[in-house]
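Regression test case RT-17, inverse folding.

Input:
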């Protein structure tokens, strides 16, 4: 791979990608990263404000990518018309493909690219990521910074001999024997890949990273062309609270839509906010987030409602239209159910984490 490797980071307007940009600039200033954002034309105003503050902090412009270049319509509206008014959904995510992935892949072309992704250490997901062979994803906030495809190849039974031989080429110190012992064990029904990976990382995160980096030199991944990669030394695992801390400690700050607002229903107090960045009408929103939009940004709610075609069955939610959701009795019920779930925090911290932070793909519309 003779072309120079490009390092890129996509800014969604959300907390995790913004915190990642700040984190990498502060901890790895030698990385020459290009920043981009995919603009759908339907973001919250706070998203654009965050991007402006982030540009000031980074001292770099964030390149704006847009789908439907040349159209007289906003990118989302262009594709909505192309799809005959059929709204995107979890089963038909044409918005993600046409407004995010396609512009990004056009931007990077065939150049070797390392793409930094802000999935946290407390999230169990890989993310909706391009699978083009010239694009390699890195996850700096996680214990395992490597993408699933890299791990699959590194830990494949077919590569046991190759990977074991790499322990002679990397300085593993007194951890060599332990790592070699784990690497030599084949994966089977009683010792699955995740067990093997966790044992390696427990034996030494930095050492495992160096082994994987050495293995990459036998492949065509973009990092195979790099002589050194500073994140090999990274042993930090960052979770949700760390992300907010990074934003608060910087001049960038937390987007206003993450800041919880108080409400009261039936004598009980609750708090709501937005859990994600992105389009104001995102179909992955929880019902309580639609209520938040209705009460905090009624003009945006009205705009989202105008997209719906109830006769044709084109609604943001599969179970009800926004016209139905906005009815006072329905709003009351959504708030009551949300408060009751929130009160389950002491019984089920995991449930509260989902309610508070629904950025994982597909989880935002599962409740109420």
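Golden output:
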């Amino acid at each position: 791979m003779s072309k120079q490797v490009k390092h890129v980071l996509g800014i969604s307007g959300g907390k995790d990608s913004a915190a990642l940009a700040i984190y990498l600039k502060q901890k790895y200033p030698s990385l020459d990263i290009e920043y981009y954002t995919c603009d759908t034309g339907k973001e919250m105003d706070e998203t654009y404000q965050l991007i402006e503050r982030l540009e000031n902090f980074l001292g770099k412009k964030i390149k704006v990518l847009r789908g439907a270049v040349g159209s007289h319509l906003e990118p989302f509206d262009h594709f909505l018309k192309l799809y005959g008014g059929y709204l995107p959904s979890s089963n038909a995510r044409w918005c993600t493909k046409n407004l995010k992935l396609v512009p990004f892949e056009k931007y990077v072309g065939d150049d070797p690219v390392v793409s930094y992704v802000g999935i946290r250490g407390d999230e169990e997901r890989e993310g909706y990521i391009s699978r083009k062979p010239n694009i390699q994803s890195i996850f700096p906030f996680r214990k395992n910074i490597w993408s699933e495809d890299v791990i699959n190849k590194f830990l494949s039974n077919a590569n046991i001999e190759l990977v074991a031989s790499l322990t002679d080429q990397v300085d593993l110190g007194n951890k060599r024997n332990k790592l070699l012992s784990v690497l030599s064990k084949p994966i089977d029904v009683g010792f699955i890949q995740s067990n093997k990976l966790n044992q390696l990382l427990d034996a030494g995160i930095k050492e495992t990273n160096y082994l994987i980096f050495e293995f990459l030199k036998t492949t065509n991944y973009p990092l195979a062309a790099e002589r050194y990669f500073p994140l090999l030394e990274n042993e930090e695992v960052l979770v949700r609270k760390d992300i907010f801390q990074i934003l608060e400690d910087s001049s960038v700050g937390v987007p206003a839509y993450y800041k919880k607002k108080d409400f009261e229903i039936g004598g009980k107090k609750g708090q709501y906010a937005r859990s994600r960045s992105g389009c104001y009408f995102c179909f992955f929103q929880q019902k309580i987030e639609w209520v938040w939009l209705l009460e905090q940004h009624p003009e945006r709610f009205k705009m989202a409602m105008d997209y719906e075609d109830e006769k044709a069955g084109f609604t943001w939610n599969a179970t009800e239209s926004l016209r139905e959701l906005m009815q006072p009795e329905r709003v009351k019920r959504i708030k009551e159910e949300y408060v009751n779930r929130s009160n389950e925090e002491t019984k089920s911290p995991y449930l509260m984490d989902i309610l508070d932070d629904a950025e994982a793909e597909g989880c935002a519309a599962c409740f109420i």
